[in-house]
Amino acid sequence: MRKPSLLIIFLTVFVDLIGFGIVLPLLPKYAERYGAEGLMIGAIIASYSLMQFVFAPLWGRLSDRIGRRPVILLSTFGSVVAYGLFGYSAIHVGTTGLWILLGSRLFAGACGANLSVASAYIADITTPENRSKGMGLIGMAFGLGFILGPFVGAESFRWLGLSGPGLVASIICAINFVLACFLLTESRHPDGSNPVQRPRWDQWKHAFGRPQLRLLIMLFFLANFCFISFEVTLPLILGSPSIKADELTDPDALRASLDSGVTPLTAAINDSIDAQTESIRLMDQLNLAIQTAKFHDNPATQLSLGNDEVAKLANEAKKNGNSPRYNRLVLEKAFPDQIKPQTHFFNESQISYLFAYCGFIAAMVQGGLIGRLVKKFGEPKLVWMSLIIVAGAMLLIPLSAGIGILLLGLGLFSGGSGINRAPIMGMISKNADADEQGAILGVAQSVGTLARIIGPIFATVAYAYRPVLPYVICAAVAVAASLIAWKRLKPIKD
Q1: What percentage of the chain's residues is helix, strand, coil (to nearest 5)?
Q2: Angle formed by the axes of helices 437-465 and 403-431, to 10°?
Q3: What is the per-residue DSSP string for 282-306?
Q4: What average pLDDT does the segment 460-486 reach?
Q5: Would the pTM of this model clear 0.90, i.e. be above it?
Q6: Is-contact 60 116, C-beta < 8 A?
């Protein structure tokens, strides 16, 4: 019989995360296309993490009892079904498709046992001194999956249409399932002791009742909270088409210009900005009116939408099959004296490249450097140092004035975030008994998932108040976490 292999478990998680990376960037657009808005879009995105929060400890405990291999196979097969449902939802655009889409994300989250059980698998087959290095493979799989996944999703949408990304993700996971059936061996072997099976909240009480485990899990939560806040708001910081009230330098002049019925907007559009099509030009004008009316923080810019011109433009945009959008650059050029220009303005494709850059940095750090860094600095020192790097990067990113500084900030954030996960998870594993690796790592994964539920709500609300606010708050959180780790985190003897 083949011995359990780090390479095989890495490939299993990596291929599964390609499927996840295919679907995740498309979720908001699909939900919007099916008729969702606002809270419903957020609920669909958060549903996956919510179900993971509920089910990850259960899968971890089950893997302690029956083994890692059957739970990972079941999880992988669940991904096949979930992504198939995602693709199937495209056949029923509208309310039916929306409910199928929500169901697919709930089912995917419920079956999403791969990360916590894969972490337990790695804990089973690595020595304590190599534990953090082994955990770095999970982070490397994350980074590589989020480099390749969005690219595959974009191409499958391009060639196969609306149902293509879900179909391709399902096929990839089906191939992964078949290969895992043949190549993935069991890592956990009975040693004469039966794992302690505690009820869900008793397991939490047990984990949090041990001071060092409680500290490590708290640090894992805070690191995930900062990361998801960055992930949610980066596209808005770098390419939001909306205009905040505090970006209007002269709202009274803008209102007067709009009320007069004569604006420089048409001239700006005709001045060949990105060679826009006529339908996009119409939507630019429509959304100028709509978005200006939504400046609820600044009553001076309210504008009535009940006029024939706006209705005509709305109907034209609807007839062309385009969702309402407008080009921020057009508005800045049309009203240079009333709207402050955004420091950075990247389109969707450019932002995807920046995310791929972040994924590449994280993958290289976690897959290639983490072992050497742990040996040189030790796990506790590496944790607090990485959190300081994260804090500095979160202050640098929103304040960067040029692309060079921005790339530096993104690189530092990705590197810092990539460094801290592996030693934290490695130390959690070392603090857990051999017969409860899955359960303890499942609790940690659930706490990390809880951060992915709370973080987006916090980040988007803070961003709406002031775009730089989530970054400043998360920098403060990272500094506080670093100080706590510096003072209280102790090395564990292997």
Answers
A1: 80, 0, 20
A2: 150
A3: HHHHHHHHHHHHT-TT-GGG-----
A4: 88
A5: no
A6: yes
Q: Which residue has the tokens 């499927």?
A: 19
The 3-state DSSP class for residue 305 equals coil
Cα–Cα distance, 88 to 82 (Å, whole number): 10
CA pair distance 378, 389, nearest whole angstrom: 17
- Interval 102-159: pLDDT, tens: 999 899 988 876 777 888 888 888 887 777 777 777 777 877 787 788 778 777 877 8
Q: What is the DSSP letter of 264?
A: T
> Do 8 and 183 contact (CB within 8 A), yes or no?
yes
330: tokens are: 């057009």
120 closest CA partner among 141, 107, 138, 108? 138
Q: Report the chain's C-alpha Rg in angstroms.
A: 24
Q: Are 346 and 328 in contact (CB under 8 A)?
A: no
Asked if 420 and 382 count as a contact pair (C-beta separation under 8 A), the reply is: yes
Query: Residue 437 in contact with residue 124, Cβ under 8 Å?
Result: yes
Q: Is the pLDDT of residue 474 over 70?
A: yes
pLDDT, residue 197, reads: 58
C-alpha–C-alpha distance, residues 225 and 231, integer Å? 10
Give the domains, in start order, of the chain with CATH numbers: 6-186+199-240+347-488 (1.20.1250.20), 245-334 (no CATH)
d(CA 316, CA 285): 11
pLDDT in tens, 368-406: 677 788 888 888 888 999 999 999 999 999 888 788 899
Q: Give the type of residue at 392.
A: G
Contact 482/382 with Cβ under 8 angstroms? no
Q: Pick left, alpha or beta for residue 73 (phi over 0 → left; psi -120 to 50 → alpha; otherwise beta).
A: alpha
Decide if pLDDT at 455 tops 60: yes
Residue 492: CB partners within 8 Å, gap ≥ 6? 128, 212, 379, 427, 430, 431
Residue showing tokens 């449902």: 85
- Integer angstrom CA distances of residue 385 from 82, 119, 391, 420, 481: 39, 23, 10, 9, 10
